[in-house]
Amino acid sequence: MQYVGRFAPTPSGPLHFGSLVTALASWLDARSHQGQWLVRMEDLDPPREMPGASDRILQTLEDLGLTWDGPVVYQSQRSEAYSAALETLQNQGQAFPCSCTRKELAGLTPYPGYCRQAPRHPERPLAWRFAVNPELTAEWLDGVQGLQSWPLSQLGDVVIKRKDGFWAYQLAVTVDDLEQGVTQVVRGIDLLDSTPWQINLLNCLQPDTRPFHYSHLPVIVNASGQKLSKQNLAPAIETRNASELLYRALLALNQPVLKDWRKENPHDLLNWAVSHWQLNRVPRVAHLKEESIQACTSTD
Ligand SMILES: [Zn+2]
């Protein structure tokens, strides 16, 4: 079976070092399997987006030599496909309208199932939730984090369409991965607890599909332990230092690195990295401190 991987950034800002590590790992894993690597913009939430960020992300990937296959998919243009999937779930009795407000659900996790039979306040704006199979335990052998076992009853029914009309992440990502023929998902560990919902959704939307292979990478955190993000002012990466960036990202992923990397151009560095890529060397941890990676580069 052909390997199909993907990188799916949210265009809420330019790429920072943490998103580069994720992009590089998923690119290397795809290329070392002679696989395809797709790029999808998860632009479902216009208020959170930064104008021009999608183009800037694509330019950065191109500057680094992380080439992708086929056209870039934009989730903002995929509403029809998500509607069709919601209809499928509705027909199966696996989606229900929910009137609960954030305030009513404060402190209640998982979702307590208030509207499972009928919305408690049908006159209010309604979200749609996916009725998970509470008997199901999602199990998979994660390529980085090892054996995972997650009872769906502990996660609860997840929102798949928001009450403001926007599509929610769990549905969109599942529909797109299915339609794009994705086989391997390599992404940050912050999405580990989304995987059980996506496995359950996949089973409902396409019962005969082969399960994907998942690998969840450690996320890069700053000195105070926060995930690098636009919110905590992680700097955008500067591609004029492409070789150094790639070198640092390879160190973060615990990959073998060339001693004379400074003499290499990014293209040759990537080729070398593809032929030496070992997913099982990626540290099986949740967080990596960015400063510890920088410290390594300054000592050689
Ligand atoms: Zn509800």
Structure notes:
The chain contains eight helices and twelve strands. Helices cover 32% and strands 17% of the residues. The protein has helices at residues 17-32, 53-64, 79-91, 169-179, 195-205, 242-252, 266-276, 290-299, and strands at 4-7, 36-41, 73-74, 95-98, 127-130, 137-142, 146-151, 158-161, 184-188, 213-217, 219-221, 287-289. The chain has 300 residues and is of the alpha/beta class. A three-stranded parallel beta sheet has the order 1-2-3. It has a three-stranded antiparallel beta sheet with strand order 4-5-8. A two-stranded antiparallel sheet has the order 6-7. The structure holds zinc ion (ZN). The site of zinc ion has 5 residues, from loops.
Quick overview:
This protein is α/β, with parallel strands linked by helices and 300 residues long. The protein has 8 helices and 12 strands. Strand 9, helix 5 (195-205) and strand 10 form a beta-alpha-beta unit.
CATH superfamily of the domain at 4-78 and 138-146 and 176-221: HUPs
Structural class, from secondary structure content? alpha/beta
In the CATH hierarchy, the architecture of the domain at 4-78 and 138-146 and 176-221 is: 3-Layer(aba) Sandwich
User: What fold name stands as the CATH topology of the domain at 4-78 and 138-146 and 176-221?
Assistant: Rossmann fold
Report the order of strands and helices. Answer: EHEHEHEEEEEHEHEEHHEH
Q: Roughly how many Å apart are the termini? A: 41 Å
Q: Rough shape?
A: globular
Q: Provide the spatial order of strands within the biggest beta sheet.
A: 1-2-3
Helical content (DSSP H or I, runs of 4+):
25-40%
Major sheet details: 3 strands, parallel
